[in-house]
Design a protein that fits this description.
By secondary structure, this protein is mainly β. It is built from one helix and 15 strands, in the order αβββββββββββββββ.
């Protein structure tokens, strides 16, 4: 009976030691944690920018040798909307309006200011975004522009009206975003639009003069980026 009791105690002790070892082994085993999956960014982005619009001076009135034209610069607000098809390829649409004065130069410099006009120049570009520079995200783009001219006013008493015709143009673009976090950033952007619309001037006597305006503006922009 004593032997049986002693054997039982030894067996129980060995079982306890075995259980303790198993528990210790379990505690020392590293716990697997699933990797954190970063939330995918929305493909939509907007920017609010201030634009400095600088037309290229040039143009002529048909039939007047040596005639030339110049245009005033303008500073205006602008909104653009960008959609990312991939992390590198995106399309951007810019929306804004800009006012300009039209002045006679060269052989018609004596006319001074010929008229005033507002432009609505929506521009759509296809962009390539470089993504290997951390928060610095440069891009280049090219696309098309369609400019609508409105609120046109002849300001010279020699003319009854001025009509600059709506026109298509080609746009080139380069810029960058500096992202503060995944949503907010600063933007710098430069565009060159090749735009040469035709125009018609009506004199107070009822005669019509035609010509071409070499606007070809540079558009310098800076503002705030928000990626949804």
């Amino acid at each position: 009976m004593r032997k049986f009791g002693l054997g039982f105690i030894l067996a129980a002790g060995l079982a306890a030691l075995s259980t303790g070892s198993a528990v210790a082994a379990d505690l020392s085993t590293p716990v697997y944690k699933a990797p954190v999956v970063e939330e995918a960014q929305s493909p939509w982005q907007i920017r609010l920018r201030a634009l400095y619009v600088v037309p290229e001076n040039g143009g002529s009135v048909n039939g007047i040798f040596g005639s030339d034209l110049s245009y005033s610069n303008s500073v205006v607000p602008e909104l653009d909307i960008t959609y990312y098809f991939t992390k590198n390829i995106a399309a951007e649409l810019i929306l804004g309006v800009t006012p300009h004065d039209i002045n006679g130069e060269g052989a018609i410099a004596g006319l001074g200011q010929v008229g005033k006009v507002w432009l609505l120049p929506p521009t759509l570009t296809l962009q390539y975004h470089f993504t290997d520079f951390g928060p610095f995200k440069p891009y280049i783009g090219a696309g098309v522009n369609y400019t609508v001219f409105f609120s046109q006013e002849a300001t010279n008493p020699a003319f009854a009206s001025v009509d600059v015709h709506d026109s298509w143009g080609i746009a080139l673009q380069a810029g960058f975003d500096w992202m503060i976090d995944k949503h907010w950033g600063f933007n710098v952007d430069v565009k060159k639009i090749f735009l040469q619309p035709e125009f018609t001037l009506q004199t107070v006597g009822g005669a019509y003069l035609t010509g071409g305006a070499d606007l070809n503006p540079w558009i310098f922009g800076t503002g705030i980026t928000y990626r949804f």
